[in-house]
Model the fold of this input.
Amino acid sequence: MYRYNELDRRLVYERIAQFREQVDRWQRGELSDEEFRPLRLQNGLYVQRHAPMLRIAVPYGLISSAQLRTLARIGRKYDRGYGHFTTRHNLQFNWVSIKDCPDILEELARVDMHAIQTSGNCIRNVTTDHFAGVAPDEWVDPRPLAEILRQWSTFHPEFLFLPRKFKIAISGNQLDRAVTWFHDIGLRLRPGDGKEPRCDVIVGGGLGRTPLRGELIRENLPWQHLLTYSEAILRIFNLYGRRDNPYKARLKILVHTLGKEAFAQAVESEWAHLKDGAGTLSTAEYDRMAACFAQSAYQDLASTDAALTAKKASNLLFAQWADRCVHGHKMPGYAAVTLSLKTPGKAPGDISSEQMEAVADLADTYSLGDARISHHQNIILADVEIRQLFPLWEKARAFGLATPTVGLLTDMICCPGGDFCDLANARSISIANAIQEQFSDQKYLLALGDLDLNISGCINACGHHHVGHIGILGVDRNDAEFYQITLGGRQGTQARAGKVIGPSFAATEVPKAITRIVQVYTDNQRPGEKFLDTFDRVGPEPFKNRLYADRGQTEANSSKQSIPRT
Amino acid sequence: MTTHFTHHLIKNGAVINDEWLLIHQQDGNPPLVIADAPILVSLPVWETCRNQLETHLGIGIWLEPDNRLESIIPDLPRFAVIAINFPRFSDGRPYSLAYTLRRRHQFKGELRAVGDVLHDQLFYMSQVGFDAFALRSDQNPDFALESAFASFSGTYQRG
Done:
């Protein structure tokens, strides 16, 4: 993984000194709350429901064992012994105190970590594919360019006070595991002529109150132009994005208002001034960055392992885990492994300090010392020898990291919701737990197969509910928690937002509603057909009919009223 | 109508007196020109009265963040100062205007940040090409000179 050089390290320490001084001035009353707000947000510090929340960046999801151990120690010393991995590769501590934050940042800096630009109206942590560099379907490893983007966007003086937050995702594989169609900028890398990476540039995607799939404005951009082209997009956004209404301030609204063609034209005109200028990337820079991510420690291994096959045959639990949590790898004899953070009864994405240390040990022992955070809120060990899978599983199991449900209904993406977040309209963790309880039969879950269920506690959509096959959105109805269900959303190259199926449900009704949805699927399913394929074939009507069978016809038809206005 | 500035103006590492007067827009009427003082005029005033101001010594223009630069590009050599207003410190548009004037159009005069100009943004303002800073009146200029321009000893951005 990328290792900090002297400049990286110096800037992080200078940032801490700057922030420490800002906190002091704020405490002395020399900085108003309003003036301090963007400063603390750009250092990852929110003021939340119970306590401040500190969001720490895990750039493009890559984390070392030493960094995990530091997070574990911080969790114990300054929080309540646990943290929460988000859908954007970040780690949140929910119970820190503001005055401790500079000290926490200092501890992070010692292992080359920070909380820079994890919030605020600036360019946020760049996200990517959690199997980057090891996936068999990968065309181009996105990490060198992700790191180049990280550096370029860090303290970019022109783009620290944008109309609204700005998220960039980059991936280079066939399936697109980074949801690039739903980011402010989505970058899809593929090999051009002569294997030089080229980039398709998608802009103006986003979830939240107005879910919009992005628009492809540039195909085959040579990688050398990635920064200048991004700069052109950002400048147009900075100058012309709306600043009068935060709900209308994201890039997607500007793209939608101007139209794809006009926006693309504005970007091209701006870019004409920048193309081939000082921001153009050189091969030397790319190669230097690529070298940081090249994995040279692989051994020559056979692509199968007899002992592994035997273990799978003799141990059903291990076989179930291996079936769901072990993934293909470009190198023979290696696998990527998901360590699930979806233990039933726990908040999805939560991880205790003890578990962080266990993951660090597992990474050191079995996966060349690194791990990745996935936007599904799990942890990936990307370079595991298949002959080590069994001992890895045994150890992971002992720490509650081997729930064999990856990709299944209960592997939910879920935001912290009303239990922690100030923005939330409703709780989401309790809904996730209730659904996990309802669907605790592993055989049944396996029979249902791949099914994405995503939960957000409010319309800001941190839980990516729009792109879940089944999406659940917490809404406030006369001060009561209700949940709206969307169906048919999806990630990947065909990514799109699901559609609201009808009126919302009370919290206690949600598990039953999910059961009915699943029953409609299995009733209509052709042999081997996946949920989405069945849904696309039969449409929403059978689902709607079953879901609202015991409600009045009038109410079922009033679904439009529950769709939030934009 | 004219306004004398009461803020602290930082330039070249020092607090200096601001000799410039701001000429407000006057409902399309020609502005009252003060013969022996340099003046800053808003874009609408400049557009309606440029001929009248032709012979005035010391002309600067005052831009709002939503002003388009196109119409003033041919006039850039006439301006000794371009002031760009930050209506709120969190409005980031002046950064892009400053960048464009300096880098693309090679503006060589004084580029002045005015309005809600606070200590904690001075470093970034100087990075995009501002070289004069009319601090909001409650900001401490000595403190700014001491620390605000040296927040970081390096940057990642090029060009």
About this structure: The radius of gyration of chain B is 16 Å. Residues 103 and 159 of chain B are 9 Å apart (CA to CA).
